[in-house]
Amino acid sequence: MRLSNALLATALMVAAAGCGSTGSTGSAEGGDIKVGILHSLSGTMAISEVTVRDAELLAIEEINAAGGVLGKKLVPVVEDGASDWPTFAEKATKLIRQDKVATVFGGWTSASRKAMLPVFERNKALLWYPVQYEGLEASPYIFYTGATTNQQIIPGLDYLKEQGKKKIFLVGSDYVFPRTANKIIKAYATANGMEVLGEEYTPLGHTEYSTLVNKVAQAKPDAVFNTLNGDSNVAFFKQFKSAGLTAEAMPVLSVSVAEEEVTGIGVDNIAGHPVAWNYYQTTATPANDKFVAAFKAKYGAQKVTSDPMEAGYNAVYLWAEAVKKAGTTEVEAVKKAAGGIALERPEGLVTIDGENQHMYKTARIGIIQTDGLIKEVWNSGQPIKPDPYLKGYPWASGLTAG
Amino acid sequence: MEAFVNQLPIGLSIGAVLLLIALGLTFTFGQMGVINMAHGEFIMAGAYTAFLLPGLFVPSLVVAFFVAGAMGLVLERLAIRHFYGRPLDTLLLTWGVSLVLQQLARDLFGAPNVQVKAPDWLAGGIGILPYNRLFIMGLAIASVVGVWLYLVRTKHGRRMRAVMQNRRLAATSGIDTGRVDMLTFFIGSGLAGIAGVALTLVGPVGPSLGTYYIVDAFLVVVAGGLGQLRGAVLAAAGLGLLNSYAEFWSDASLAKVIVFAAVIAFLQFRPQGLFTVRSRALS
């Protein structure tokens, strides 16, 4: 009985939505295009995801001001994933089925992406995911605008190697991203004559790092590779510094610390340490000058811009470009048109790889400055072809088999 | 070997953090039996007090005591006192309050962590032990001594102990138990505020700060025996050392498991904790 009610309700909903949806799927009569934005606006992840939403809304506003897409205005439908993975799946379904959005921009944690992936594949709808992640994935219905491992972690290791750092210590939060990243790092180290002196994980939200810092101090590595996430970074850097360890003697390379996090950690505690990303607020491109100015004008002069925000901002532009090229918002046509699209973005030239739907991105290593911003000291020279399964790296062959 | 020796002071300094966060709870939970889930948010209030008074680290310890104490007092007067004798309802109530306070902090100070600059005289250290850790150990000892003197040497402290040991007899002896409850809650919450200021030296200062410490605080109070000052001191030191060596030989995740398993096993043999109050009251 309940089942048939549900079926009836679904049928009605589909029928109702069907009537209203002609405007949004791209027929010629003007009107609007609805796009979904799905981030955690409450709960623990809100701290990070709200800023990405802001950047995406800015991009939509700018595109509308420039005349919209296919002569239509973009209308954002914003939903809250609430830092809860089933909620992400549920809201994604709602955006696709009920709001009939043309595409969705959203997610931050890998857990939220994994929760949404089957929803988008089942409904043959599009998701643009804006954060660097652990790779080993290429869904035909997701575009990944953040870095995969060969555009962030491997360049980070190349940098350490160039700096003559032979002995490294791995510190990370205990979940999928750090563990996968560290597997890659260990394989890289073996192939490149580097030595991994230790590998330590702490639970998410861990705040007591004195024992771990003691272990690091005793092991005397040349550098630490840090995949800690969230508030743990604050405790780690405070306790690392007060144990007398310095960025000169033992740099800590982080892959989850951006401009946003520096204030909370305390500039004094982290200045001088390197980070690996594809974009910094200080990246010198004309597109970035415009982005930073527009962001500060809209949200306040004290706001900073960071890599995931820029990747979210890019996602909207890249999608809009693909829609223009396809002449429709129809998903399969957009997917087909997307491959090869190249845009000058704040981080430099970004090209969509049609094969795995990741981006060609330039890797950049930066040093945290005393003013809280990050200064680039090294880059990969040109955009790196995305390789989520690390097929182009012989030493990684054992990693991707499983 | 050097690393092994280093773990001893590290364990004691972890114990000092545990003692500071648990000290307030030995009052509100230990003596009054209130399962106050918002205790962590009083710690958070202390940390934000330090944030609001930049450059005034030591004065902020005092201010935080009164800020967090006042919050505790308001909570006790407005809500908790209507729930005495209903521990499960109190638990839900204070948990709700803790969520409200977290969101309030998010609205007032923003979701990202804020920066509290440690005073310059706490930079540096002796060997593996930084001055800020030594400061926390000193502060923990000073707090315990202060609390002990208060309980043993003052009129109010004596009344507090009387109410704890036998509430009805204390009431018939003319003690205003309602007032004593208020004062107990004020001091217990105030101590959380002091802990919050101290924690800015070693940890993050953000809306979720309290959630990182609340479970450990309860662990110390339960293992030490409800309402027992010396129990809390010994339990904090013991758990700190256990944590330090367990993590040294395994890793942080496993160390947590080992500590919890040890406390569970310990409570099998001594469900009342390390020490108990001997009293003739019928409970």
From TrEMBL, chain B:
Organism: Nonomuraea soli
GO BP: amino acid transport
Name listed for the protein in its UniProt record: Urea transport system permease protein
Keyword set includes Electron transport: no
Family: Belongs to the binding-protein-dependent transport system permease family. LivHM subfamily.
Keyword Cell membrane: yes
InterPro entries found in the cross-reference section: ABC_transp_permease, ABC_UrtB_bac, BCAA_transport_permease
Pfam families assigned: BPD_transp_2
GO cellular component, one term: plasma membrane
PANTHER family: ABC TRANSPORTER PERMEASE PROTEIN, BRANCHED-CHAIN AMINO ACID TRANSPORT SYSTEM PERMEASE PROTEIN LIVH
Keyword terms: Amino-acid transport, Cell membrane, Membrane, Transmembrane, Transmembrane helix, Transport
